[in-house]
Amino acid sequence: MKVLLFTLCLIYSIQAAVIVTNQQLEARDGKDEVITLAQDAKSGLTGALGSEILKKLCFTLSQREPYRIPSPSDQPRRGVVAAILRWHCPKKKIPREFQKPRTLEEFFDQSWVQEGEAEILFMQRATRKGDRWSGHVAFPGGKNEKDETDEETVCREVREEIGVDLKSDDYLLVGQLDEREISSIRDNKLLMILVPYVYLQIVPESPPFELQTSEVAAVRWVPLSFFLSSQVLDYTPITEPLSIFRHMKRRWLKSLLNVMLGTISFTSIDLPPTTASDNVFRLWGLTMGMTKDIIKLVDTKESFFYKLTTQSPRFSRVDIGWFTMLITYAKVYWKRICHKNVSGRVYRSYVSAHISKLRLVSAAMETIKLEH
């Protein structure tokens, strides 16, 4: 019986390899996995223009009602992260004395918020043996504790991880992005609700970081202009075997199924370094999706980054890709039938969240530390 199964699988895998050979050759086109394209580091979105863009982003988000998802009683786990924005002003333009603003209006009326550029903070997770998300880029944050609100969770986690006190008067809560359901790719079981907050640093000089080295390897401020540029950027696809077979004990069967079902490639992009010796910060998955949600608040759908994030993952087996898309759209359509009374924006958010599973697969845990 085993011999028959092995023979049938071998024949099927050979046929599959023949089917996708042309697609693989076209995709590779004689190039390495890293796709090198021209990068425009300076987009001109600095000074007064950059300030207006940041202002529009902040006011749009502050007036926007996010899509909220209450946690079910059988899964109260919630993960909360913080995207922190700041206006990076040249030191010579920093006033010696100034009154700390208490509102967005007061912040953008400050004279020093006219020269410099807007930036967003990312962190790189520490490298740990056995952790397949080691070194991945994320927003600081973590999971909730019992009887803790979402804001209390994010303030505690951010302070523990990078030493930043979001409760201080150096920061202002701008708003919240849509909440997301994080489900297992294997059985669709709900793992947690992800809640992304956006904060603004309202002082010209950033407080020093105190990194929790067991969790965080590095942090980096990245100019918003990097994500708003229409110029083509360098990007690198991340390719992995289909994750549902990652934990199979029989290696020969796991290898065979990986050959039969092929691989899946996700869009990712390397964030610009501040010095030549900086680590590679590769943005993808959930954090890339949340970054896109922030960037699209300023109506920049012509930016290369935005277009890149709208790409679906690539399956080396075209038929597997079509089947996965069919199942996903069928689930979304069925949910629409069962929830006829929901608003259009809420429904679009729901659709986006489910279609995003094709882009995330098992990347759901890159942002939240589930092992603790």
TrEMBL record:
GO molecular function: coenzyme A diphosphatase activity
InterPro entries xrefs: CoAse, NUDIX_hydrolase-like_dom_sf, NUDIX_hydrolase_CS, NUDIX_hydrolase_dom
Protein name according to UniProt: Nudix hydrolase domain-containing protein
Keyword Mitochondrion in annotation: no
Top-level taxonomic group: Eukaryota
Signal peptide annotation: 1-16
One Pfam assignment: NUDIX
Record flagged with keyword NAD: no
Nudix hydrolase domain span: 76-246
Keywords: Hydrolase, Signal
PROSITE patterns to which the protein is assigned, alphabetical: NUDIX, NUDIX_BOX
Family annotation (SUPFAM superfamilies): Nudix
